[in-house]
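The records we work with from here on pair a chain with its fold. Here is one such record, which you should read through line by line:
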Amino acid sequence: MGYEIERKFLVMGDAWREGAAGASMRQGYLCLGPPSSVRVRIEGSRAFLNVKQSTLAITRAEFDYPIPLADAEAMLVSLCVGAPVVKTRYRVPYEGFMWEVDVFEGANAPLVLAEIELASADQAFAPPPWIGAEVSGDPRYLNTHLSVCPFSQW
């Protein structure tokens, strides 16, 4: 069984951009949960179907499967609840960890969030200087929520 242990933070400023490489993503939700969310994501020329436990807990069950790009395109157009979430994800190394910084576009701009995946819920890490408030427990910052209530409408 797959698990994700992740914490999410607001990002302050642009200092994180130095040396960061980004990839464009489009994703939509076939099911918003609970008890689970089902997401289709297109990243470049690759596509994935993801099933994740719907919870605000830092640790949650998660399963990710590659699917044909054409299938993902069709799902995004015809099967998703809410609007697709469009973002560019940047991978930013900092003190032994790989941070993922998501810069949202469209109705979710100018939101910028950073996520860190951990080996355990209590694993210690040093936050980079550009990390702001933690929003792991705030449901508004879940991508599922952003698909039906975009940041620009808050």
The chain has one domain: 3-153.
